[in-house]
Design goal:
Order of helices and strands: HHEEEEEEEHEEEEHEHEEHEEEEEEEE
Number of strands: 22
Structural class: alpha+beta
Strand content: 35-45%
Largest sheet: 5 strands, antiparallel
Distance between the termini: 83 Å
Number of helices: 6
Number of domains: 3
Shape: elongated
Radius of gyration: 27 Å
Amino acid sequence: MILRIVRSWGFLPALLILAALLYWKFHSVPSKVIAIGYVADRDVTLWNTLAQVREPVAEAHYGDRVEIMRVEGAAAQVRTPSGVLGWMNDSRQMMDSDLWGKSAALLERSRKLPVQARGRTKAVSNVRVEPGRDGKRIFQFMRGTPVLILERAVADAPQGAEDNSQEEKADSTEEQKPKQEDWLLVLRAEDSTASNTPSAGAGSAEVKPATGDTVSSGPLAAHAGLVAAGGPGGIVGGWVLARFVELDLPGPVKDYASSADLHVVAWFELNRVPNGAGGQAPQYLVAGSHGGEGQSCDFTMLRVYTWSITQKRYETAYVESDLCGQLPIDVTRSPTGAEFHFANNGRNPAESRYVMHQSVVRRVTKKSAAPSSSHR
């Protein structure tokens, strides 16, 4: 059709007609809403057209509800609640109603779980609604994003996924890629960054990591509350590759774990004792395992690090290594000491329960409450 116009009318009129057709295609107001979507990135610019020469008309944020009016390839024309019509370059920056509902349910469940550790992302990391690279992406963390670790899961490592981040793509091409990968359920909480960096030395103002408290006292009150929580600086929950998260371990825990070649999955401050210099020294519970990814147990070893007043250093007060522990580890405090328990799926599946008073740890059994010996 364009060639006929060019031959009969000449080049300039044909060009004007073509421009008019393109303008009508991308600027005409659609009469029908195709679907409802929710913004899945921090900030998304909406444009007045898909042409190279274009102008921004609005900015949408994570969780914003938009009406999808038209789809052109990977792009989508949407309408904001305020009535602004604009083009989104990549429709993957948006979740459909079903995925948004799943992400909301996951966030609500995550906010009730006890925190197992704190850390931060080592690279750009896709956040997924389910563990595994085939799980649908619901957000993307930048490098250095502080996160709270809640659960661990294992998923098959596929040959590749179309929507992986560049780091995940590069990681998936390694020759010695594991057959299964560890995934962590995490929450992003930007307001926790100020207290997440542990300081060195006993008795100093060290950060209190997970203590068994829940992140929230109850479920989300309403959908509007979820949108507010998911905004920049708020809370976002989902599954990320475990190897992309570096735990913020306190100095003593980090040193001992490194020397023992222990892969830490959870750590807690159990209590504090006099450090012999007029201050208080925190004492730590650490759970971890030896070996690579894909293990059926979340952790196989427990260690409790206590402060020795006479030696002026941390020492290993309790070790148990014949475990197949499953997260979460629940930690509570009482006037008589700290208590912690977890599900042990070892040779004799049961709940393992421990109590600690000052620097003494004992395992609680039905038959006896006498201190148990350490298994080294």
